[in-house]
Amino acid sequence: MGERVAKIAVIQMCSGTDVHKNVEMACALVSDAADQGATYIQLPEYFNFYGPAAKFADVRETVPGPTTTRLGAIAHERHVVIHIGSMLEVSSDPTKSFNASVVLDTNGTPRYVYRKTHLFDIEVPEKISYTESRAIRAGDDLVVAPLDEFNLGMSICFDVRFPELYRHLALQGANVFAVPAAFSAATGPAHWEVLLRARAIENHAFVLSATQVGTTAEGLSTYGHAMVIDPWGEVLCESTSTSEEVLATTIDLEEVATRRSQIDVFALRRPDLYGDLTGAS
Predict the structure, then answer these.
(1) The domain 5-266: what is its CATH number?
(2) Which of 116, 244, 245, 255 is catalytic?
């Protein structure tokens, strides 16, 4: 193992509509991860509220705000980076919120915010129908967060279906991708692991994904399977539980450089053929 190692944790949750209960559960799971030595801890998408869009306006917050302050206190106390996979953030459109991913630094300060850019508007007959854009406003900025231990390319759930996003993040210096998710139970068995491993292999980067699991009282069903994948596409750890879980492991950042030197997909690209679709400043 090389010298550039990081102890990370991804958290699986069963969030519902009780914000206080969800936040307190998240705090307990984050503390568990910190007890295991993790210095970067990722929560899933919609970690503090997972429920009907009709209630979004009642629970959305500013950043910073009550939820980031609560978790920020733990980040400061435990000297860890806490990645709020996503929460509902106030936008300038009173009818829509942002689906926002927030990285809290070791002082508890919201340092980086990524607002989901690809919204889950799908229609799979007899399986799932959902239009996230009815209540969520898409973000317009891509984010690479330079942390002490690695450069984090930020994304949320449905983003994983857009490989050009991850190539852009990699070209901008990301060596670890965050994919916090509430991935559909209808498509998860066929697509979830394949998509995560593909994003890792294509860019020789680590992929970290905290997840929602189970079915809410309102019938929203998520696949779970929190995962950590290495730059060769190997699954380092995965949750098969149907309840809350902390997955903690060590990642060796030297493996990114090693794999990229062995198969240099960045240098071997042919933008002269298909255009410089990604990596533009």
Answers:
(1) 3.60.110.10
(2) 116
Q: Is the dihedral of CA 228, 192, 43, 112 positive or negative?
A: positive
Q: Is the pLDDT of residue 135 over 80?
A: yes
78 Cβ neighbours under 8 A, 6+ residues apart:
30, 31, 34
Distance of alpha carbon 242 from alpha carbon 251, whole angstroms: 25
Question: Among residues 89, 157, 244, 255, which one is catalytic?
Answer: 157
pLDDT digit string, tens, across residues 159-182: 999 999 999 999 999 999 999 999
Is 45 assigned a catalytic role?
yes
Q: Note if 14 is an active site residue.
A: no
Q: Is the peptide bond before 163 cis (omega within 30 degrees of 0)?
A: no
- pTM for this one? 0.95
**What type of residue sits at position 177?**
F
Pairing of strands 144-146, 128-131: unpaired
**Is position 157 annotated as part of the catalytic site?**
yes
Residue 278 has pLDDT above 90, yes or no: no
Q: Kindly tell me the sign of the dihedral angle through the C-alpha atoms of 126, 99, 228, 37.
A: negative
